[in-house]
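Q: Given only this backbone (317 positions), what sequence would you predict?
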């Protein structure tokens, strides 16, 4: 089975009846991008840009950042999509040169887009650097931890200014869906974005109020919890009403058993860890779109994560 999976890993992702599902990768840098393409990734669905900012004493300059974003873009070439997430720090990801206030609840404090809007200079520098990759690839910019339309509009206004200054107009803009309000309000976000990407790691944490790294809660903090699945369904419904696409870049996308459920809910892009590219593509090829939709409806009717896991184990192909 492994050999067969490897053989088909270079084919485009699709269901057994030919519905296209883009299988792309989560990466940190250009070296990861090269490895992902070799493994059959059709592009990058999440470049975690914070790795450029990590383990250093000062923020990376525009030139330093641009060099890395452009190197990633060159690895992908002009036909593959690249989704660059703007800096996602705070909470579990502190930076020495960006002193954030000591918080009682850092996961509920200054994180993701909130930090960027609090330090617009940092955001502008990063956006200018990202935009330099626009001529090289199918560039997408994604904002993390967005909770309200005000945040999206503020970030987009800054982006629009930097685009006007740089002349790079051809960029898609999206948000991560990892805060419950973004899922609930997906139909209202949809007219103002080009795409959504669901971060099931944080979405699970915030829907269930369970720390994503808590050892004793690891089993319960499962992205297949019916409460999380309902949020994913809501995001897909809200996006579909406005013709916008939905991806999943959290860990759930790399779960073979979850892939047909996500596709059945309306997800058309799965951004997975590089080692999961082959197995996720192989799984998709064993399900038709109608079967994915039926499976998704069955799962949405269940009440506990234990029931969901049991059903998917029984249906596994
Ligand atoms: C997520 O929250 O699911 C996600 C993809 O972002 P990160 O894991 O980097 O927080
Ligand atoms: Mg996250």
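A: Predicted residues:
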């Amino acid at each position: 089975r492994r050999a067969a999976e490897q053989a088909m890993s270079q084919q485009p992702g699709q269901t057994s009846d030919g519905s296209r599902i883009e299988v792309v990768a989560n990466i940190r840098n250009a070296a990861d991008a090269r490895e992902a393409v070799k493994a059959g990734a059709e592009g990058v669905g999440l470049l975690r840009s914070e790795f450029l900012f990590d383990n250093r004493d000062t923020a990376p300059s525009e030139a330093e950042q641009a060099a890395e974003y452009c190197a990633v873009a060159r690895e992908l070439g002009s036909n593959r999509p690249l989704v660059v997430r703007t800096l996602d720090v705070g909470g579990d990801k502190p930076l020495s040169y960006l002193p954030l206030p000591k918080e009682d609840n850092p996961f509920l404090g200054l994180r993701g887009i909130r930090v960027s809007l609090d330090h617009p200079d940092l955001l502008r520098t990063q956006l200018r650097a990202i935009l330099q990759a626009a001529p090289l690839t199918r560039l997408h910019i994604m904002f993390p931890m967005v909770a309200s339309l005000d945040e999206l509009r503020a970030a987009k206004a800054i982006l629009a200014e930097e685009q006007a200054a740089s002349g790079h107009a051809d960029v898609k803009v999206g948000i991560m869906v990892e805060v419950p309000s973004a899922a609930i309000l997906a139909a209202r976000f949809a007219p103002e974005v080009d795409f959504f990407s669901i971060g099931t790691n944080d979405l699970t944490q915030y829907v269930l109020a369970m720390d994503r790294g808590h050892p004793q809660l690891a089993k319960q903090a499962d992205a297949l919890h019916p409460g999380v699945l309902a949020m994913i369904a809501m995001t897909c419904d809200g996006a579909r009403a406005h013709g916008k696409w939905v991806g999943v870049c959290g860990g759930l996308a790399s779960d073979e058993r979850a892939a047909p459920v996500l596709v059945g809910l309306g997800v058309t892009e799965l951004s997975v860890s590089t080692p999961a590219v082959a197995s996720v593509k192989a799984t998709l090829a064993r399900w038709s779109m109608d079967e994915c939709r039926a499976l998704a409806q069955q799962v949405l009717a269940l009440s506990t994560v234990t029931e969901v896991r049991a059903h998917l184990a029984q249906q596994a192909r």
